[in-house]
Description:
There is one protein chain. About 20% of the residues lie in helices and about 35% in strands. By secondary structure, the chain is α+β, with helices and mostly antiparallel strands. It has a single domain (about 1-95), classed as Ubiquitin-like (UB roll) (Roll). The strands form three sheets. Strands 2-1-9-6-7 form a five-stranded mixed sheet, with no helix packed on it. A two-stranded antiparallel sheet has the order 3-8. Strands 4-5 form a two-stranded antiparallel ribbon.
Amino acid sequence: MSKVRVQLFGRLGKNLGSELLIETKNKQTSIREVIEILIQRDPGLKDFLLSNDELSRGTILLINGHALDRSKAGLNTKLNDTDRVIIDCLGFIEIVGGG
């Protein structure tokens, strides 16, 4: 069994909350599995997180404070129980909105 801590920012956490513990039956979980579980729990996240079965360009995904390397394993990156995943999404309004 694998457990991964996930933190969602902004509108991504609107329905699920900002802090989640994702548990799977696999010994190691991939980023793809985490995202699929999030989308199962809140189908509205799919449009924010994925584009053509890949991570959307506007999605920011950090593993233990480091950006996901999209050029290597990408969504197939394996996670450990001690890993913390942070996900945020940039949208047009957020980029130009300001304060």
